[in-house]
Amino acid sequence: MTKKLLALPAAALLASCGQTADLRPAEGNALPVAPYGREDRPDPQELLESVPQAEPERSVELRRRSEEREDDPFDLPPED
User: Fold this and answer.
1) Distance (Å, rounded) from C-alpha 47 to C-alpha 43?
2) Half-sphere exposure of 10 (CA within 13 A, CB side)
3) What gap in Å lies between CA 22 and CA 47, rounded to an integer?
4) Is 3's pLDDT higher than 70?
5) Distance between CA 26 and CA 18 in Å, rounded?
6) C-alpha dist (Å) from residue 62 to 26, 56, 69
7) Residue 1: its pLDDT value, please?
8) Which of 14, 37, 42, 44 could form a disulfide with 23 if both were Cys (CB 3.0 to 4.6 A apart)?
């Protein structure tokens, strides 16, 4: 019984190991075609990089001091 209990964490640690080799398409598959307007095909590392539109920076300035909240007509008490 204790051997099974010890084997479970060992199996979990082994399963959590990540692949450290470079990414490649599976055998028999190719990378996606080049995007419209681009002549060369991007490599896997370029495909993993996100574009600025996918991760926009915050454009709203954070509040620096407390302010009274405006009345919210949809903030209703719970029904009994």
Assistant:
1) 6
2) 6
3) 13
4) no
5) 17
6) 46, 16, 15
7) 66
8) 44
Token output for 40: 């060369």
Q: Is 42 exposed, middle or buried (0-12, 13-18, 19+ CB in 10 A)?
A: middle
Q: What does the pLDDT look like over 26-80, one tens digit per residue?
A: 888 887 888 888 888 888 888 888 887 887 777 777 777 888 878 888 888 888 7
- What is the structure's pLDDT at 15? 67
Alpha-carbon distance of 16 to 10, in angstroms, equals: 10
CA 46 to chain centre: 16
- The CA-atom distances, in angstroms, between 18 and each of 8, 25, 47 are 18, 17, 19
Question: How many angstroms separate the CA atoms of 64 and 76, rounded?
Answer: 28
